[in-house]
Design a protein that fits this description.
alpha/beta, TIM Barrel, 11 helices
């Protein structure tokens, strides 16, 4: 299916690791991922090195990438200052911003209230428009709230709608920051939001345990989702969420489900196998 988009997220896999991954090792791994045929590579971030020290070399990594492939590059930013840094690089196509439907998590993740976060979205969207970039907004805590705050699908839809109506954010990814989703919740949420926002590309950025991965992918796809984030081997997770990380959606498990169901992903399996082997050097266990 030509309109299926697979986004590989090595940045998400790397960011929480304690030991610093050498710049050349990062760049070599991402260069292999660029040959796999992913729609987009979430390769790095422009955030405070105090908050995410692993990503302090993002601009240097970028200078070492072979950008002859059609895959696009996405960098995460947490505020306007990070966005101003990211837009200096012509090679970057997308800026990603984690907007939270939880006030508590917004403070933990970006040191801002939801109201302040909306101001950041507006400023970053203006920067993107002026500099030929596109802002991708992730709706953190999109499938549940561990902090005792109210959570329901109406709250998630409300913020998706605000982001589109007020700021014209046309790519939004519902993010299961803590691995709270189950297939019925995933299906019902996507079935509610996708038809209600036909001009928005609604994606799935799911953190999950391996045994739940394919059932959640199936639920999202059957509900109309065509944009999926993953990280090879399911490594990583959000270091700002809670101590016990729930890993990313394993890309290879997700791709297996699509293949088993006759859904074309456009991924080059030869380079995918190579990337899986190289990941052992990047993420020694």
């Amino acid at each position: 299916m030509a309109d299926l988009k697979i986004i590989e997220c090595p940045r998400d896999a790397m960011q929480g690791l304690h030991d610093f991954i050498p710049t050349d090792v990062k760049a070599n791994y991402i260069n292999t991922l660029l040959k796999c045929g992913f729609d987009t590579i979430d390769f790095g971030s422009f955030v405070s090195p105090k908050a995410i020290p692993q990503m302090r070399d993002t601009s240097e990594v970028l200078s070492k990438l072979d950008l002859s492939s059609p895959s696009k590059l996405l960098a995460i930013v947490a505020n306007e200052r990070g966005a101003e840094e990211a837009i200096q690089f012509e090679e970057i196509d997308y800026l990603g911003y984690p907007f939270s439907v939880s006030e508590e998590f917004q403070k933990r993740n970006t040191n801002a209230t939801i109201e302040e976060s909306l101001g950041r979205v507006e400023a970053m969207q203006n920067l993107c428009i002026k500099n030929n970039k596109e802002l991708v907004v992730y709706l953190s805590m999109g499938f549940g709230n561990p902090y005792g705050e109210e959570w329901n699908s109406e709250i998630v839809y409300k913020w998706c709608n605000v982001l589109f109506e007020k700021f014209n954010i046309r790519i939004q990814a519902l993010s299961d920051t803590i691995g709270a989703a189950n297939p019925s919740l995933v299906e019902s949420l996507f079935k509610e939001i996708i038809p209600a926002l036909p001009n928005v590309e609604i994606g799935a950025h799911l953190h999950t345990r391996l045994e739940n991965a394919q059932s959640i992918v199936a639920a999202a796809y059957k509900a109309g989702c065509k944009r999926f984030d993953g990280a090879l081997k399911g490594l990583g997770g959000c270091p700002m969420a809670k101590d016990d990380l729930t890993g990313n959606m394993p890309t290879e498990v997700m791709l297996d489900w699509f293949e088993q169901n006759g859904i074309s992903t456009g991924i080059n399996n030869e380079f995918l196998s190579k990337a899986l082997l190289e990941s052992k050097m990047v993420f020694p266990l």
